[in-house]
Amino acid sequence: MIKYIRDPIHGYIGITDVERRIIDTWPVQRLRGIKQLSIASLVYPGGEHTRFSHSLGAMHVAGQIADSLKKSVEISEDEWQLVRLASLLHDIGHGPFSHSYEELIVQKLGINHEQMGARIVKESELADALKESGYRPDEIIELAFGKRTGGKTYLHQITASQVDADKLDFLVRDSYYTGVEYGRIDINRLIQAMDVCGEDIAIDLKALYALEAFMIARYEMFLAVYYHHAVRAAEILLHKAMDHADELIGLTSFASVEDFLKMDDGYVATKMRELDPTTCKEPEKRRRAEKAKEIMRKLDNRELLKVAYQRDVHIKDAYVARLLGDKNVRHQKEEEIAKLAGVDSDEVVVDVPTLDSIPYYPREIDPMEIPVFTTNSGGKKELVQLSRYSRLINVLKGYVDIIRVYTSPENRTKVERAASEVFKTLPFSAQINM
């Protein structure tokens, strides 16, 4: 380590000469202008931390995991450096307002932040900085955004698995900055308990309590922060504004990686606030400019949408699964509710936890996919089923999903009645409570 950075979560984060060179490139520095939690600070004023600080934290945790695994497998200095660089760059492809923009770019261009990240590593100054430091951009891309790397699956799992460096950092970081206590988990115990069984990272059953705390934290942070009703109300408005302003300010029509890298939260927010509908000659463009500008005014004044209806449902139900995952079905329900309520269809939004604009939701983690092991009397590690040893994990498998219907404050009562009527056709097996 040649330098140390003070971090409120991990204390002092050491960085190597190679890391300092990569950190000082524009694609990484740009992450200072992108908030980790988009506009969740409208609800949690402390949640102003950035993708930059999270990326440093994920890099630090990746190094700790690699160090922990060295007790049973050989990890060279080059491999250790590789996994740290991959974790540092894992969020490099995020656009302005992170996941709110992701929904737009997936919809318009069919690419996500990981695919964009791979392009940035290959096509920006990062490629030259990596090559000059002795690393191939392709090997970083494979570790940060690919499925696996060579024969050492566990190296890839440090950066992408059910309990990886990314998740271990964002849970404690998001919890700390929002002031929500649920994410304060003992990540050091989890890291210490990690080992390699075969080619996979597994967690010692002795650390079961820490693993259960991690699972609970993930679920509670989803409910309290990532899918908080007011956070989602703000995110929905922001996405609508960006959708309306897309063609006007070139959100998804960037010609090159360099053009993409010009965009961060402040740039896009300012561009949308400065839209002047009177300069638009085409009626449709004028309408979109007016809509985007008005939404930004509402966000600036914290005039958010309101929940008119909420329903908790079992995810196992086939009808509900289709409803949650299918954009056309959601839009059909929005139109049904709007027609019944006598309001414009733009005034109704059906929101579900599977959208790209929701960063972390419980279904991303399958407790059955987290390998755990015990050590027998002969000192040999044996993989065991987590569900056999944890009742809590079995309970978490049966979590619920939430359907919400949002509208403007003045239409709340009408939309609530209409949504109750439309959604009463959900199968009884899908109902938990109203």
UniProtKB/TrEMBL annotation:
Q: What does the record give under GO molecular function?
A: dGTPase activity
- Read off the PROSITE patterns from this record: HD (PS51831)
Q: Which residues form the HD domain?
A: 51-171
What's any GO biological process attached to this entry? Answer: dGTP catabolic process
Q: What is the protein's given name? A: HD domain-containing protein
Organism annotation: Hadarchaeum yellowstonense
